[in-house]
Amino acid sequence: MVDPTQETFSLDDCDEMRQLGREGWEKLLWDTPEGVNGPFPDPYGRGTSYYEFAGTGLYIRHTPRANINPVSAPDGFTYYDPVKDDFNYLNIASLTYVLDPKAPQPEPRKVPRTA
Fold first, then answer.
1. Rounded to whole angstroms, how far apart are CA atoms 67 and 112?
2. What is 36-72 written as a DSSP string?
3. 30-67 per-position pLDDT tens digit
4. Burial (CB count <10 Å: 0-12, 13-18, 19+), residue 73
5. Which end of the chain is less congested by CB atoms within 10 angstroms, N or C?
6. How much is the average pLDDT of 70-95?
7. What is the pTM of this model?
8. Dihedral pair phi/psi, residue 53, rounded to 5°
9. How far, in Å, CA of 76 to CA of 64, rounded?
């Protein structure tokens, strides 16, 4: 089973994430040990979103906005880099976990807990 807390993901992990889908990934995040708050990658976004626990909820959020060169941040956002556990510009971020770089940016929201 893929571990959402790991820094890098193998090709097998990416295949498993494709099979899980967003709903399965969110259930997996809900099952992480208490006190592990993230941020966690959003493999179904395009690198401009991430998950984190806050209070008693799990949230999907956007990375910080970037008002810089469109080559470094073409969507006007920095990108979540789980290897560095930081928000970086596209030209220095590791986005190997992103399954579809052209995916639509998800709306920030509270993620409901599913059974």
1. 32
2. ----EE-TTS-SSEEEEEETTEEEEEEPPB--S-TTT
3. 999 888 898 999 999 999 999 999 988 999 999 999 98
4. buried
5. C
6. 91
7. 0.90
8. -90, 140
9. 9
